[in-house]
Amino acid sequence: MAAMPFPEIDPIAFSLGPLSVHWYGLAYVAGIMLGWYYARQIAGNSKLWPGEVSPITKLQLDDFIIWVALGIVLGGRIGYILFYDLAAVIERPVRAIQIWNGGMSFHGGLTGTTIAMIIFARRNSIPIWSLFDIVAAVVPIGLFCGRIANFINGELWGRLTDVPWGMVFCNQYIEKTNGYCPGGDFVRHPSQLYEAGLEGIVLLLVLALLIYRFRALKTPGFVTGVFVCGYALSRIFVEFFREPDAQLGYLLGTNWLTMGMVLSTPMVLLGIWAMLRARRQAAPQH
């Protein structure tokens, strides 16, 4: 018996004829739209920016939402295939478009979004680091929505545990879809909720504090560095509680090195570099 009951939520939010709309897809839409709204508030507050002049207009942000959506979806899916599921997709190519099979890779989505930001900034003469900062400030909203969708789907569950809040990740909908419970009849860490809390809520609040209390956007690139480093450290920490993808398992030793750790470790160094670079650029020249 699970220490806490896993909710009886159908992964399909609703159906329109033959079309089934999954919570996973709705989570991405919600994350993008809420992030867009928050980004508009940040861009519209000139007091937050160097010289009290916003580097991007709300109209430009409205155009950018299409770019970032494509970067997230294409980069996230391609990244998942390359990092986690390449053999299965080669064997069965249609699996590539089935985002509910494995889902998306954050690291791939970050790469896709970065490419979209660079191209958009250059085409619209927007300071690239300031655009990075805006996106970094709102990404935790999308991460929170995505991890909650992972939880509803009963996927990306945690390792075996005996903590009082452990769960058996199975309900009637998961059994009906798979014919069994993929996670087995075992009590596991709800690691999706750990990630939603750290990557989503905590990181969002830290970045908001830096932006509104310490005016960090006046130092272009610093918010980006904090986000990249903060996400990576959060992900590495949660990986100690999260079950690795079955097709990969542990990459080295027993029960500690995972693909998520490998992909996140360089991000820590990249984030530190971005923060140091931002401080150096902002320092008065003598």
UniProtKB/TrEMBL annotation:
Amino acids binding a 1,2-diacyl-sn-glycero-3-phospho-(1'-sn-glycerol): 147
Protein family membership: Belongs to the Lgt family.
Chain's role: Catalyzes the transfer of the diacylglyceryl group from phosphatidylglycerol to the sulfhydryl group of the N-terminal cysteine of a prolipoprotein, the first step in the formation of mature lipoproteins.
Name of the gene: lgt
GO molecular function, one term: phosphatidylglycerol-prolipoprotein diacylglyceryl transferase activity
NCBIfam families documented for this protein: lgt
Keywords linked to the UniProt accession: Cell membrane, Glycosyltransferase, Lipoprotein, Membrane, Transferase, Transmembrane, Transmembrane helix
Organism in which the protein naturally occurs: Rhizobium mesoamericanum STM3625
Location(s), subcellular: Cell membrane
Domain of life: Bacteria
Class in the EC hierarchy, top level: transferase
GO CC term (a single one): plasma membrane
PROSITE patterns in the record: LGT
Enzyme Commission code: 2.5.1.145
Predominant subcellular localization, coarse grouping: membrane
Protein known as: Phosphatidylglycerol--prolipoprotein diacylglyceryl transferase
Pathway membership: Protein modification; lipoprotein biosynthesis (diacylglyceryl transfer)
Alphabetized Pfam families for the sequence: LGT (PF01790)
Membrane topology value: Multi-pass membrane protein
Parts of the chain that traverse the membrane: 20-39, 64-84, 104-121, 128-149, 193-212, 219-237, 257-276
InterPro entries referenced in this protein's UniProt entry, alphabetically: Lgt
A GO biological-process term: lipoprotein biosynthetic process
